[in-house]
Amino acid sequence: MTATLTHSVGIPDSEYRALRDRIFEAIWSELDPLEQQIEDAEQVPHDIVMPILDRIGALGLLVPREYGGSGLSIAQYLPIIAEFAKVQGGLRVIVHVHNSFAHALSEIGSDRQKADVLPSTATGRNSVAFALTEPGFGTGADLGSTAVREGGDYILNGEKWLITNSDIASHFIVFAKTTATDVSAFLVPRETDGLSIAALPETMGCKGTEHGRVTLDSVRVPATALVGVEGQGNEHLERALEISRVFIAASSLGTSERALELSIAHAKSRVTFGKPIGTRQAIQRYLAEMATDVYALRGILADAAQKWDAGERIPAEASMCKLFGLEAVGRVTDRALLIHGGIGYTRAHPIERLYRDARLNWLEEGTPTIQYLVTAGRLLDGYAFSDAFETSRTN
Ligand SMILES: Cc1cc2nc3c(=O)[nH]c(=O)nc-3n(C[C@H](O)[C@H](O)[C@H](O)COP(=O)(O)OP(=O)(O)OC[C@H]3O[C@@H](n4cnc5c(N)ncnc54)[C@H](O)[C@@H]3O)c2cc1C
What are the Acyl-CoA oxidase/dehydrogenase middle domain coordinates in residue numbering (predicted)? Predict the structure, then answer.
């Protein structure tokens, strides 16, 4: 049985500010000092990081309060995931996937799945990963994995790869075909017989997080493992990815904000020909363009969050946020590198890492092409995204 779909209204402002300040403080005093270690070892030290994330409440941000989480609204969550993106991409990715797919389960999971998994997810004892992408097939509904009903069970077979948090996940939301055309979603515990996990090579940026290969070899799960309704996996997938695309755009915002801050500081301190480079019009133009991207991204994110929190679906808006976010963070990190000159290309400076981290935003939750297809498809179907000016006038 699927619970009613609702959007969280969030928590009182004073409580939110205390939580956010606590998390920001720990990000800069406890997690930022780990950056070099993570980049060098290409491994997030989970034994250090997860207890910190649990202590500051960063693992249950989108878990409803009745399941032991903080129950933040989307508008309250976005600044927090943006702040993680400033520090180190691998940490951001862990927190993003953990919260995003706990949120998905809280929206489309059965009451039993939520009761079984969410309370321990809020503390980091459990973590839900998202297993859609396959080596032999394409994006979304183009799946080779199958789930065949056998008595009261389903038998799953298939191959997934690039599955983030595959080293720490306790559960995978696995998408598989239940008929030649219908897709369904299943909540599969890591320890289930027939499920095996192998590491893939280290990534360009967002270092230290595992994005492994998950093989399903005659994995038997009970019918209660079905997430949502059989055959409606595509609808569930769209719902989960819709808001998760907004989270990726917020990550693009955090990376962009940090690159801009560092660039302003560098423009003031780097002196050539007797003057700070920030006095040169060419550098000023870069800074102004970067700030414009940051400002615009903040604006569309605030609009998307407000609509979602008010209970609206935002299929086109979410794809537009993700598309604009990845283009904006691309431009901002390009310009930040140019402002920093050669030293910015070395590991002496965080710009080099921000540049690499940003490139994952292209791929997570669908490539730019997929965002064009989703947005244009909606427009051609007659979808009209609501007018933010109208919304703000009537609120
Ligand atoms: C670090 C990392 C973490 C990831 N984490 C996860 C995760 O946790 N769970 C998960 O399920 N996936 C995850 N992914 C996978 C990610 O979502 C995909 O890589 C991404 O959506 C692109 O899909 P693909 O790799 O299959 O590329 P392809 O589908 O092979 O695409 C290659 C190119 O072809 C284009 N293309 C493909 N099909 C079409 C089409 N029909 N029309 C037009 N153009 C098309 C694409 O836009 C792209 O430019 C992760 C990827 C990375 C790199």
Answer: 129-219
CATH topology for the 130-231 domain: Butyryl-CoA Dehydrogenase, subunit A; domain 2 (2.40.110)
pLDDT at position 32, please? 97
Catalytic, 390? Answer no
- Domain 13-126 matching CATH 3.40.309.10: the answer reads no
Question: What distance in Å separates the CA atoms of residue 66 and residue 53, rounded to the nearest whole number?
Answer: 20
Pick the residue whose CA is nearest to atom 43 on ligand 1.
369
Radius of gyration of the chain (CA): 21
Token pair 């008595």 is at which residue? 151
**Residues in CB range of 177: below 8 A, 6 or more apart:** 143, 144, 145, 146, 147, 183, 184
| Third-level CATH fold of 234-381 | Butyryl-CoA Dehydrogenase, subunit A; domain 3 (1.20.140)
Q: Which among 367, 373, 375 is the best mutation to test ligand 1's pocket, defined by most ligand atoms within 8 Å of the CB? A: 367
Cβ neighbourhood burial of 107 (10 Å; 0-12, 13-18, 19+): buried
Model confidence at 40: pLDDT above 70: yes
- C-alpha of residue 171 to centroid of ligand 1, in Å: 21
pLDDT at residue 123 above 90?
A: yes
Contact 56, 98 (CB under 8 A): no
DSSP type of residue 143: -
Query: Among the residues of the chain, which ranges form H helices?
Result: 13-26, 35-41, 46-55, 74-87, 89-108, 111-121, 233-269, 281-309, 315-340, 350-358, 368-380, 388-394
Residue 291 CA to ligand 1 centre (angstroms): 30
pLDDT digits 0-9 by tens, 174-211:
999 999 999 999 999 999 999 999 999 999 999 999 99
CA-137 nearest atom, ligand 1:
26
What is the rounded distance in angstroms from the CA atom of residue 323 to the CA atom of residue 320? 5
| pLDDT tens digits, one per residue of 313-353 | 999 999 999 999 999 999 999 999 999 999 999 998 999 99
Which residues line the pocket of ligand 1, CB cutoff 6 A? 97, 129-133, 138-139, 162-164, 203, 211, 360, 363-364, 366-367, 369-370
Does residue 5 surpass a pLDDT of 90?
no
**Residue nearest ligand 1's atom 23 by CA:** 139
